[in-house]
């Protein structure tokens, strides 16, 4: 015999009501928002050049726009950090005789667990 699920009025009630209230506020904001009329570009405007000028906050483009210099710099810094991280992860160890990679694919752990001193992999440089 199955029973009806019962509502637990414990510590889950307040966060649930907060989530429902936030949903109502966000739905009201989106439904009552008004957007301006969509406008096209002029027929003789160079869109690509205007995007490039807007990215560097220059006022030379045919299409007026806002500056994207801060977004460009943030993206550049994020890509630089990612590149530095990949270089750090791919760097070779300085203390080993072979100059092996930092990540050895588990060979050192396998040698420790099996007690073998020789590397049994063939065909590697």
UniProtKB/TrEMBL annotation:
Residues 97-125 are annotated as: Disordered. The chain crosses the membrane at residues 12-33, 68-90. Keywords: Membrane, Transmembrane, Transmembrane helix. The keyword Membrane applies. This is NADH-quinone oxidoreductase subunit J.
């Amino acid at each position: 015999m199955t029973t009806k699920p019962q509502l637990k009025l414990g510590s889950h009630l307040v966060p649930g009501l907060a989530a429902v209230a936030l949903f109502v506020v966000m739905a009201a904001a989106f439904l009552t928002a008004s957007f301006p009329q969509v406008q096209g570009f002029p027929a003789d405007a160079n869109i690509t050049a205007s995007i490039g000028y807007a990215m560097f906050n220059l006022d030379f483009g045919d299409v007026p726009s806002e500056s994207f210099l801060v977004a460009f710099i943030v993206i550049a810094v994020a890509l630089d950090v990612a590149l530095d991280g990949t270089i750090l992860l791919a760097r070779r160890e300085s203390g080993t005789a072979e100059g092996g990679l930092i990540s050895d694919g588990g060979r050192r752990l396998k040698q420790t667990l099996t007690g073998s001193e020789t590397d049994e992999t063939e065909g590697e440089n």
